[in-house]
Amino acid sequence: xxxxxxxxxxxxxxxxxxxxxxxxxxxxxxxxxxxxxxxxxxxxxxxxxxxxxxxxxxxxxxxxxxxxxxxxxxxxxxxxxxxxxxxxxxxxxxxxxxxxxxxxxxxxxxxxxxxxxxxxxxxxxxxxxxxxxxxxxxxxxxxxxxxxxxxxxxxxxxxxxxxxxxxxxxxxxxxxxxxxxxxxxxxxxxxxxxxxxxxxxxxxxxxxxxxxxxxxxxxxxxxxxxxxxxxxxxxxxxxxxxxxxxxxxxxxxxxxxxxxxxxxxxxxxxxxxxxxxxxxxxxxxxxxxxxxxxxxxxxxxxxxxxxxxxxxxxxxxxxxxxxxxxxxxxxxxxxxxxxxxxxxxxxxxxxxxxxxxxxxxxxxxxxxxxxxxxxxxxxxxxxxxxxxxxx
Length: 391
Prior knowledge:
- This protein has 13 helices and ten strands.
- By secondary structure, it is α+β, with helices and mostly antiparallel strands.
- A hairpin with a 7-residue loop joins strand 2 and strand 3.
């Protein structure tokens, strides 16, 4: 076998330009597959990591309906920790879109948020300056501003901090009592808190009397399954106003769905890269077919002195495998390097997908066998007499 391998390498080296072109096709194809599979795995890991950093104990509730059934009552959410085992903290909120227009600054789209006192703890938000809205504020128009709201005011040359008053919608003036620390967007809570003004529910209802509390945030106690808690919360709130529809979602449900979707995307990316690999395989087949044509006399001599058809097939298959495996090794290295560069520039944590290295070697070997078999079989069927006459 060693002799066959050394002959294969020598034959490929004898046609450097043609072999390098075929090798390039395999390198590009394998590199594309490995890079796409690895990048897909990195993106999946990064998305799940960010999601898990927000807390897998999170459960959100949403209410739909009309009239009195349009939202939650504040007390039915704030009492959930007492009525439903496993709820550590619960808060209800309502929101209304708002556009903030200031002279000297571009318009900014944000939101007015009215929430029960435990909202900051439930959403894991932090007040950087001042204080949070409290139960004792009652209907006073006190608000906490998000980071981007404060930056928007500064862009217009105005200060915004605890004690400042700003003109709110519909002629209302709001007193800022605190500034929020930068908040990370959470897919389960459809609010960008960096662009929000947060106030108590009574104050919010003064400004937006027709806007209900259509959302709620729960945190599960340690040892509680968030998915079971979501089902329990739905059942607990099902006896509300007729026509109200309550839907609960847990972070673990979203993570499981996201993981499934990311796996599908990774397979799709790998399939797209596989097209390049097929093109490279066609190049290998073309090189081997040309080699069979050029070496017909050599094949005839080998068969005339006793070489079996199986030996001829093995000889050409080994050459195709050498070409494909060399391209696979180089392509795997390039693919992993490309994935590393993409992760570095995106600021993601780089990891090598478990399947990347065996996939690169396995796929390139498979390409060598599949696209090398036809030329090898054609070589084994050469008539020795006709081959010896070939010039």
